[in-house]
Write a structure and sequence with these properties.
There is one protein chain. By secondary structure, the protein is an all-beta fold. The chain is built from 2 helices and 15 strands. Helix content is 2%, strand content 15%. A hairpin with a 4-residue loop joins β14 and β15.
Length: 515
């Protein structure tokens, strides 16, 4: 019971309740712990600024009371985690998850340097040497744009405008797009004719280089321009052997055809600059087609000239079109000593030695044997028995070789300059003739004259021989030497005189033909 000056009286001596044993009401600072009300009470030892002391409000020391106690790194008496002391009474540090004002740029509470905040509590930036996920491609911590990572934290690529050491030779890109320039290819290699990369900015039209060496191809010149005949660049790979073009236009010169091949007569390309007027692809002078009387041909020097003609009757055998050609001696239809040529120069008339019996032959072996040969007539008789004169003449020269002759009124006498003898022909009533006989002489005949049925024969060995045409006998042998021409002196007082002209000895000899 409270009496007198008592503030309280709980009837006990317990100083840990609301009434002290002095009957004074328990208060903070009385030095007694009032259970349920106070956490502590050290009386005069209560201090708010002393660590680990009971606070003047009789509360135990705690984080946030503004006094650093045991176990606390700090105690700033507030709950602000952006200052140097956290509300946990731990000093603020990088990585505690709280951004300390004026000390940290960020603090994400981890040590991961690939996010937006580094473990140094600095905001991740390009150049911090850490690759920020989903933000940066790379980060090598420098501003060198010649390595694999640019100062923008983008991986170096061809077209970024920076030449990467050891990887690129050049880089003229714009906005990370590979670009070509006169000096730099689109793949960031230095442009050079022969690199196999056509760089139009460098003036290239093509580039067929091999291993960096400019190489010629059928389509591309060695200077990386497209090959075309007329470009003044001889491209042997395209088949050119020359190129004398002007301003890109194929032009003909004396040495070079318009198709860029070397000009040569016979190449089938008429090069007027070299003086050709034609070129038929060979160096042969052609002739006119058979039977044409005139034409123009291309000669061996590629000049247009009048062509040689080949006509039946010109006396020149054209084996491709003729079987014979005796000039004007055509169309002999009767038997002859040697082959005669009919009109058209295609067939021979029957002749002695053709192996067939004709209307004036008694035999014909067709063997073409020489004089005195043994020949068997078709009848089985010997040549002597059947008087096969054909056998004696089959191998003699053709009549067209006989270039001189003398004619009498009844007979035709022709001299043979190639052989040794006279051919004596009989004139027939139809105007034709047939071989009558052959008179042998001792040497090739040079000239013949006929007088009083005597043949005066000049040869190159004996001189002058006189042969009686009635019996084929030798009547005389006058002089010697190499007489070449004879001349009778007609209608004068010396009518029976004969002149022998010796060209070698340079003499004239006069003979009396009547003696």
């Amino acid at each position: 019971m409270v009496e007198g000056d008592e503030a309280c009286d709980d009837g006990n001596q317990n100083n840990n309740d609301a009434c002290l044993n002095t009957c004074i009401a328990a208060t903070c600072g009385d030095g007694y712990l009032n259970h349920g009300v106070e956490e502590c009470d050290k009386g005069n030892a209560n201090f708010d600024s002393v660590g680990d002391a009971c606070r003047t409000n009789c509360t135990l020391p705690s984080c946030g009371d503004g006094t650093k106690d045991s176990g606390e790194s700090c105690d700033d008496g507030n709950t602000d985690n952006t200052d140097a002391c956290l509300d946990t009474c731990a000093e603020a540090t990088c990585g505690d998850g709280f951004i300390e004002t004026d000390a940290e740029a960020c603090d994400d509470g981890n040590t991961d340097n690939t996010d937006a905040c580094l473990n140094t509590c600095e905001e991740a930036i390009c150049g911090d040497a850490y690759v920020q996920v989903d933000v940066e491609e790379c980060d090598d911590g420098n501003t060198d744009n010649t390595d694999a990572c640019l100062s923008t934290c983008d991986e170096a690529i061809c077209g970024d405008g920076h030449t990467q050491t050891g990887q690129e030779e050049c880089d003229d890109g714009n906005d990370s797009v590979a670009a070509q320039s006169a000096e730099c290819n689109i793949d960031c290699t230095l442009s050079a004719c022969g690199d196999g990369k056509t760089n139009s900015d460098a003036g290239e039209e093509c580039d067929d280089g091999v291993d960096g060496v400019a190489t010629q191809s059928a389509e591309c010149n060695i200077d990386c321009t497209l090959s075309v005949c007329g470009d003044e660049k001889t491209n042997t790979a395209s088949g050119e052997t020359c190129d004398d073009g002007v301003d890109g236009v194929a032009t003909q010169s004396a040495e070079c055809n318009i198709d860029c091949t070397l000009s040569v007569c016979g190449d089938e390309k008429t090069n007027t600059a070299s003086g050709e007027t034609c070129d038929d692809g060979n160096t042969i002078t052609e002739t006119c087609n058979y039977a044409l009387t005139s034409c123009e041909v291309c000669d061996a020097n590629c000049q247009t000239v009048a062509g040689a003609t080949s006509l039946c009757g010109d006396g020149v055998l054209d084996s491709a079109n003729e079987t014979c050609d005796r000039g004007s001696a055509l169309s002999y239809e009767e038997w002859a000593l040697e082959p005669y040529c009919q009109a058209g120069c295609q067939n021979h008339a029957p002749y002695c030695g053709d192996g067939s019996l004709h209307n004036r032959e008694t035999c014909d072996s067709g063997e073409g044997l020489g004089i005195g040969s043994e020949i068997t007539c078709p009848s089985g008789q010997s040549c002597d028995e059947c008087e096969c004169r054909c056998s004696h003449y089959a191998s003699l020269s053709p009549l067209y070789y006989i270039s001189s002759g003398v004619f009498s009124e009844s007979d035709i006498y022709l001299g043979d300059h190639a052989k040794t003898g006279l051919f004596v022909f009989e004139r027939l009533t139809d105007g034709k003739s047939r071989l009558d006989r052959h008179i042998e002489t001792s040497a090739p005949i040079k000239d013949i004259q006929i007088a009083n049925n005597l043949a005066y024969v000049a040869d190159s060995v004996v001189g002058l021989q006189i042969i009686d045409l009635n019996d084929d006998s030798l009547k005389g042998n006058l002089g010697s030497g190499s007489g070449t021409h004879l001349a009778l002196i007609p209608n004068t007082e010396n009518a029976n005189r004969l002149v022998l002209i010796d060209d070698v000895a340079e003499t004239l000899t006069l003979y009396d033909t009547s003696d």
